[in-house]
Each structure stands twice: as C-alpha cells, then as structure tokens.
Amino acid sequence: MEALVVKNLCKIYSNGKGIKEINLNVEKGKIHALLGNNGSGKSTTMKCITGIVFPDSGSIEVMGNDLRNNDPKVKSRIGFCPDLPTLPKNLTGRQCMHVYGYIRGLSKDQVRLESEDLLEKVGLLDASDVKVSKYSRGMLQRLDLAIAMEGGPDLLILDEPTAGLDPSSATNLRALLKKEASEGQTILLSDHQLSEVERLCSDVTIINEGRTVIESKMSDLLERVKGSFKYVAEFSSVNDKLVCDIEKVSGIVRVDMDHNYSNTLIIYTNKRDQLNEEVSKIAKVLGYSLYSLAESRTTLEDVFLSLVNTEE
Amino acid sequence: MSAITGMVKYQGIIDLKAAKTYVVLALVFFLAIAYGYLLPKFASGILFVYTKSSYVWMLTTSSIFVTVIAGLVGLLVGAFIGSDVIAQEFESGTIIKLFSLPIRRQDIYLGKFIEKFLFSLVLSLIFVLVAIICGYTFSGNQGYFQWLLPFTMGIVLLIIGFSSLGFLFGPLVRQSSFVFGIIFGISLFFMVIYGIIVSKVGYSYGTFAIPFMNMSLVPGSIMNYAINPSGIFHFVYTSFGNSRAYNISTWEYMILNVVFASIEILFILGLGFVLFGKAELRS
Q: Where in the sequence is the domain holding A38, given as residue range(s)?
C-alpha cells in the first residue's frame, strides 16, 4: 500500500519560484528520499504535503485519503520536521512536547506518557527540562523529530534532517531513522548527503527545477549503472572534440567533464578491455596526452548528477 | 482534548513563560493603583472634584478620567498582549510547526482568541480588584458593587478591542514590534480625530462610531449605567480651545458605546480571521 501519492502538484510563489509538476509515490514502511538541488522544489513539495502552503493544483493522498482542504483527520497521520527547527524558545523540551501534543488532540496522560517515551528515544530525556533556547542544533533537530512522532503518525516527512549537524549527530539521527523504519515507520526525507541516502533509503524520487525527473527504487536506480564502469581520466588538455570522439568508442555510455578538476573527464563504459589504449589513441590524434586513467565506484551521486545534468 | 482546547493551552503556556506577561501584570497593577489611589488623591481639583463619600470616587472617576485610565489600559495592555499573538509566530518561524499540525487555521486563530479573552478577563479582574482595594484604603468602604461585573466585562471588551488589531495586522505585517507600533498609531489617530470632531462639531451618534475612542468609553459608560440606570449623563468636553456640553441618558450612552465597539471588534477580528486563513508563507 502507498502511504503518500502526489500527482501533478503545482505551486508557484509570487516571485515565480516553486514547483511545476511533482509526482511522488511513497510506499508504506519504506524510507523514501526526495532529492534535488537547492531551489529544485523539495521544501515546497513537503510544505504542500503538510498543508503549510496551499498548492495551486494537483492532488495529495495520505494513506488513501485526499488531503484536500487540509482535513485535520488526514493531517493527523503526518508528522513533519522543517529544515530549520523553530520551536518556542521560552519553553523547555518537555513543555514543547506537551503543547504540541495538546494541539494534536492528545489527552494529558497520553501527552505525558508519549513525551517521556519519545524524549528517551531521541536521547533528550536528560535535557528535557532545559529551555529550547539553550539547545544545540542537533538537539533541536532531535526534539523536532520527537514532536513530529507524537501521536504516532503513519508518515514522517523530514526536510533535510541532518543539515547543520556535526557528523556524529547526523550519524546518530540516521541510525534512529533506520530503527524507526525497521519498526514499520514510513519516512519521506530530503538530504544532501547522497552517500548516506544511498545506504538509508529504499526508494528515491529526484526532482529538478520543480519537476519530477525520476521515481525509482534505489536498487533499480543503481542497477541502471550497474554493469557499467566509471573511470576518471586526466589529460594534458580537454575539449568538446575529445569528449565527442571518446563517446563514439564502442561500449562507452557517457563522457562528462569533471567540474571539480580541469582537464579531467569522467567516462562511463560497459567494457574495460583496451579502454586505456583506445582513449590514449584518440587523445594522441588530437595532440593531447592521457596522464592517468583510474576506475572509480559508481554512486547515487553519479546517477543524480547525470539525471539532473541531462535535464538541464 | 479538542484541537482548539489544545491551542488555548499552547497559547496559555507560551504566555505564562513570556517575560512580557509580567510586564503587562506590572502595568495593570500600576494603572489600578493610579485609578484607585493616586489620581483621586493627587489629581483632585485638577481634573475633577473628589468627594470622599460612599462609592463616589468610583462615580466621580468614571465620569471624568476613567476614559483616560481606560484608554491607557486598552492601549498599553491591548498592544502588549495583541502585538505578538499572530506576528510572533511568523517572526520566529513557529507558524510552520503550527500549520503542519492537524488543526485548521481557523481553529488556531480561534484558540488564540479564546486564550487572549481569558487572559484579558484575568487582567481585568486584577485591575478592578486592585483598584477596589486601593479605593477602600483611601476612601473607606464603597458599599455598592453592582457595577463590578459589567464594569469588569467592559474592561475585557476594551482590552480585546485594542488587541484585536494584533489579530488583524499579525498575518499582514508579521513583525510584532511593527504591529505594536501600528496599534499605537491607529489608536492615537482615532483619538485625535475624535478630539477634532467633538470640538468642532460637537457630539452626535456618529461620534460614538469612532473606533477605539468608543472602546475606551465602554467601561465608564457601563459603570455609570450600573450606578444610575435612569440618570442623565452630563459632561463637558474641551479640546482645541472649544468647550462642548452634552447630555445623554446613561442607558443610551452605554448602549451606543458597547454596540459600536462590539461591531468594530467583530469586524476587525473577522477580517483578521479571513487574512490568517489565507496567509501564505513566502518562498
């Protein structure tokens, strides 16, 4: 069953930014990654799903229920953490849990029990009586996650939950998410650490310039490049003709300029045999030298960049 | 627990933890002491003639400077409690959390209003009780308190009236300090307009329709009616060198102020309700 179905979602802000056509299907019990460059529309998509902004058109279904009119009954099945956790600064962590629990319609006893349980789960029980204004960014993220989990929502939506966290806090948070998912929690998250997303998520949707580029299982997406090899080739110089000529070689899937290093190309190929000789030969014809050719692992980042660059 | 009740609790706990609340409490205490003790003692003979007899200080003050005190209570207390009720949520970003929760925007607004109403009621009771204690200390037993409940409700209406501007401008301006300034600016603007109209044209039913001035007059007019239901309220208004006398029954005076003030408050809150429901977060 699908926990979330988004169809043709469109929201354009007055400044012209926004999303044009987002399609998204999140399966129940899975961790689903929503990936895209800054400004691609990830946060707007999440804000539309959670009712924070009103979409111009499109439909959103949560656990089979239409989210039109921001029906509180349907929204009670969603827990949301925005990219910047903003909580009332004068309150303690525990008080925050209580006030948001009351708004969710929980009874006093439920609020008390769930607060203790969730604060313990996110490792904030000891700091629960400290004012939120004294919390570090990592503590705020964890508290926000605990608040989002109050009332046991079916779907957790987390907008860059590890942004601004130190590596160890980020690792702890991801471990917590993984544990929640293993217990059946559905999670939709965005994250810029693609290597971590690759390990954490089972499904992925990539969006670019407000449109869905691809929706896929993580394994299928990586399968697309499985069997192909990635090589990093350094030349004395590179130009478009060199790229074009290498792409014509049989078995070569794609050739990209490396934006981080000049005179370096990234070559995706299905065969490894005689690659060095053939590339070297092409370079020589054009008057260049091949300095090095090293194999590299194909990652989600490569897939992401190739899809986003193709779109652009 | 319903979401609205939860919202009332949310706002109540936030208010209890805010330093501003204690500033407002101190202000209410000061204004009550000024009303019950300082002004009768030190301003007698300047603004009014104080007579030390049964309940007269209340009656005397109600006809003259309750407007001044009420205006200050409404303006200062109303601005303090109303300026951040909506704007602060946008300013601090906590509105994102609220909008993501399973509660309708209208219920967020309603919950906040109910909490502010209850808060105003508590402040009004404190104001009236402290004023009575001060008056008792200064004048002896008043012995006549049938005005107490309606007068307290008048103070509630007054505070809600001024703070309603925070509900209206909060979703638009989204900066509590600006909203505070707007409440001051609009209130003072209408007070000046009132002064000009009354001094140039005199009183008419139209003058009771001037917003914020009528709200300031509500507690005093309720008290006058409660003390003297069949009486005629006579007062002289002097401003810009012109002096205007006016006679009106205490019943008519109270009804006009309460009705006009209520209509305006409902209009302001209704408009704020619509604006808050449609408020868009900027990208």
A: 2-217
Quote the tokens at residue A39.
Answer: 């400004």
Residues of A in contact with B90 (CB under 8 A): none
Distance CA A47, CA A157 (A): 10
Q: Is A222 within the bounds of a domain?
A: no
A248-272 burial by CB neighbour count: b if 16+ within 10 A, else e? ebeebebbbbeeeeebbbbbbbeee
Rounded-to-integer distance, Cα A190 and Cα A60, Å: 18
H or E stretch covering A212: strand A211-217
Instruction: Kindly determine whether residue A104 and residue B102, on different chains, have CB atoms separated by under 8 Å.
Output: yes
Segment B59-76 mean pLDDT: 71
Residue B206 vs residues B100, B116, B210: alpha-carbon distances, Å: 45, 30, 7
- Please judge whether B283 and A100 are an interchain contact, meaning their C-beta atoms are less than 8 angstroms apart: no
Say yes or no for a CB contact (<8 Å) between A100 and B101. Answer: yes
Q: Residue A251: which CATH number?
A: 3.30.70.100
The C-alpha torsion from B167 through B169 and B170 to B173, rounded to 10°, is 180
Query: Rounded to whole angstroms, how far apart are CA atoms B202 and B248?
Result: 13
- Tens digits of per-residue pLDDT, A39-64? 889 999 999 999 999 999 999 999 99
| Dist. CA B97–CA B45, nearest whole Å | 56
> Which 154-193 residues of chain A touch chain B by CB within 8 A?
none
Q: pLDDT tens across B13-32, in order? A: 999 999 999 999 999 999 88
Q: Retrieve residue B100's tokens.
A: 């993501």
Closest CA to A243 of A258, A265, A261: A265
Domain of A151, CATH number, reads 3.40.50.300
